[in-house]
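Bug #77: duplicate submission created two jobs. Keeping one. Sequence:
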Amino acid sequence: DPGLVQGATYEWQDGSTGQTLEATASGTYWVRVSLDCCIASDTIEVQIDALTAFSLGNDTTVCGTGITLSAPPGSWTTQWSDGSTGPELLVTTSGTYWLSLSGGDCTAADTIAITVQPMPTVTIDGDPRSCDGTPVTLTAVVSDADTYVWSDGSSGSVNQVAATGTVWLQAMNQCATVADTVQVTVAGPITLDLGA
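Kept job's structure:
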């Protein structure tokens, strides 16, 4: 709106001749105002970023070390739930996170719940050798697993192995299945007879 000039004619870059023009897209806008033999013109750059509802996505579970959330592109001001104002937020722990965008008199926000599920780990602990014929005692050292199972089908934290062979232990959660393997040796005692 260049203002009311009594008796003047108006011409906008789109050819319209009203006193005002509604800018609906980003770009360069100009107006020429004529009154008798006087002509004046002005130009303005308009930036319109549609600050409408946006989505950080559905609540989700991620595997491993985390996920990076990103703000939608635009020239508005960002505010994350941790107080940061950058275009991205690295999420490494489970929780609820939000992003608020503001530009002029407009604001929009969204919230997402994220569960960060670590990858399972598994180790078989214990001496896998027996020299006197007694069973070998192996212990499961497992973290971040929903279930685990030994190669013989058992699921206890301790496994007594009475025979030589390969023993494995698998640990599982919704992200992955991992395993550890040991070679077990069960040998009888050595009998020596040097004679009489």
